[in-house]
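User: Predict the structure for this protein chain, please.
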Amino acid sequence: MLPLKVLVADDHAEFRHIIHEYLDRLPNISVVGEATDGQEVVEQVERLQPDVVLMDISMPRQSGLEATRIIKQRWPETKVVIATMHDNPLYRLQASEARADDFVVKSSLKAKLVATLDSYARALAVS
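Assistant: Here is the predicted structure, written as structure tokens:
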């Protein structure tokens, strides 16, 4: 099975570093890049063609929600997982409206992320 290509998008360098290191230890996951704002995420998706984008909502220049809308419009097969500190029903609704594939609160990220990425990797292997 080919590794699942993941792009990590968050404006906090420490969070990106921790998640990058964590994902690097998982089998069949390859972190192909990192982005610090919404505009950079869109550029990286175009260039790197990741299978999954792990996307923060609150980022400079362009929000993660706006970047998600653009990504899902241009590359609908790319999965976008919103990862945020805000367990807020309004953010969940906005993420759904932007066509995000999943919504994960950062406090439970590690527990849910592995299962989410595993399901995406299995689906990719079947297609």
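The longest strand covers residues 29-35.
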